[in-house]
Design goal:
Length: about 475
């Protein structure tokens, strides 16, 4: 699990639909069949947020919407839901477009760009504007970026080896993790304190204003504590930045290795974004293939690839009696690469998701945003942000791998390329109605083809744990 996590997970279905494993001294059960995962996710009262992953996340983030127990979730979701309704998200596409333009404004032909870092910078700036109305200053945003990178690298090790004594040892990795966690909390505390001293919350149309208003409420049902206020902000930054950034980086990495799909994407964005501006609320529904590319990216390489739950009472699952307090794991990566659900699962095929095609996917087989009452509250926003970013960048730029590029996925608390550097090539979109020219798949510098097998792409260790 630690040395070759993806390979290990892919070996488990041969042992059954529910497989017992060891996480250090802890016994746990991995659910390998989509119907059983669907059963787990639909019964959040019995299979609650818990286990090594969420126990660690609660220490870091507090009891926010992503980590709280079942009994607190409904109230928290009602509080935040207005900020993530489809109409609200549609109104924020202009904001997203502004940030996308800003991050690639300085790109030049032939420039090598750290795509992983750039996409994380973009998502941090977008989520900070949604939360705080205006972006964090560049220095603070950069520090949030660094903290997130360090935290996700350490969380996976703390999940698969849940031995607290190991992480109290003052190693350099443990010190980095503690420092990053403390700095992220301090940044959030500063932002909240600055808002209270500045413009009244009622004058700011953002999520922090909603949370501050709830914190001042006299009605017990609506009010939230100061600790919960901080927890919600931390959770939204943590969940809203890392996963979207990894999805976008993975999409560009995959498109560069599949020129036929890249060409189809370019054809669509050239038509829909004929004037070159970022897509707005009217253009988003027309970006059908763009969304198919993103959905297939989430299937092929889900940023959230491993999750834990804990049973709140004695229960039966797949004929196995599980005592109260049992740790249960499920892996979207494993389910998304099940050939019974997705024929030829290792191939990158966006056409799986064209209208009318996805109806055959069984429940529980495709869960990049989970399911049931605990599904991701930010799913609509994340897909809108990723669609705007992918479409606008593809309209203006072609991203190419460096010579000798070899992909090596190294899972941490999330999954995706963390050191992806690519070469920018400006595009000259053809006029609408003009047939595509034959084009070479060779970049400015010859790129050595890379062979990718996502079922064994875990490398030999966890990234910088």
């Amino acid at each position: 699990m630690f040395r070759r996590p993806l390979d290990f997970l892919n070996s488990l279905p041969a042992h059954g639909d529910l497989v017992e494993i060891r996480l250090g001294p802890l016994h746990a059960w991995v659910v390998c069949h989509p119907e059983l995962v669907h059963e787990v996710l639909m019964d959040a009262r019995t299979f609650d947020k818990g286990g090594p992953l969420y126990d660690r996340l609660r220490t870091l983030l507090g009891d926010g919407i992503g980590t709280c127990r079942h009994q607190a979730h409904r109230r928290q979701r009602r509080l935040l839901q207005p900020g993530f309704r489809k109409a609200r998200v549609a109104d924020q596409t202009e904001l997203i477009g502004e940030e996308v333009e800003s991050v690639c404004r300085e790109w030049r032909a032939g420039q090598e760009v750290d795509i992983s870092a750039t996409m994380l910078t973009l998502s941090v700036r977008v989520i900070s504007r949604v939360l705080f109305s205006d972006s964090l200053d560049s220095a603070t945003a950069a520090e949030v970026h660094r903290c997130l990178v360090t935290i996700v690298r350490g969380l996976f090790l703390r999940t698969v080896v849940p031995v607290e004594a190991l992480f109290r040892v003052p190693t350099s990795a443990n010190r980095r993790f503690r420092h990053a966690s403390a700095r992220l909390r301090a940044i959030v505390d500063t932002v909240i304190a600055d808002r209270r001293r500045g413009i009244p919350s009622s004058d700011r149309d953002d999520l922090l204003g909603v949370l501050l208003a709830a914190a001042r409420s006299n009605g017990e049902a609506a009010a939230i504590t100061e600790e919960e206020l901080r927890s919600q902000v931390l959770t939204l930054i943590f969940a809203g930045a890392e996963t979207t950034a990894l999805c976008l980086a993975s999409a560009f990495e995959l498109l560069a290795r599949h020129p036929e799909e890249e060409g189809r994407l370019h054809s669509e964005v050239d038509v829909v974004l004929a004037e070159g501006r970022p897509p707005g609320r009217d253009e988003l529904p027309r970006l059908v293939h763009t969304r198919c590319v993103l959905t297939e990216t989430l299937r092929h390489r889900p940023p959230g690839w491993l999750f834990t739950r804990v049973t709140t009472k004695e229960t039966d699952l797949a004929g196995q009696r599980l005592p109260r307090g049992t740790t249960v794991l499920y892996s979207p990566y494993l389910l998304h690469h099940d050939p019974a659900s997705f024929p030829d699962p290792d191939r990158f095929l966006p056409d799986r998701w064209r209208p009318g095609q996805a109806v055959a996917v069984p429940p529980g087989a495709m869960i990049p945003f989970a399911a049931g009452t605990r599904n991701c509250i930010g799913e609509t926003f994340a897909m809108a942000e990723a669609t705007v970013a992918l479409a606008f960048i593809a309209r203006h730029w072609r991203l190419r791998h460096l010579p000798g590029h070899v992909e090596r996925l190294r899972p941490a608390a999330s999954l995706g390329p963390r050191d992806l550097v690519m070469v920018c090539e400006p595009r000259a979109p053809r006029p609408v109605g003009t047939p595509p020219r034959a084009r070479s798949v060779t970049s400015r510098a010859a790129v050595t083809p890379c062979v990718h097998d996502p079922r064994t792409a875990g490398g030999h260790d966890v990234h910088d744990a």
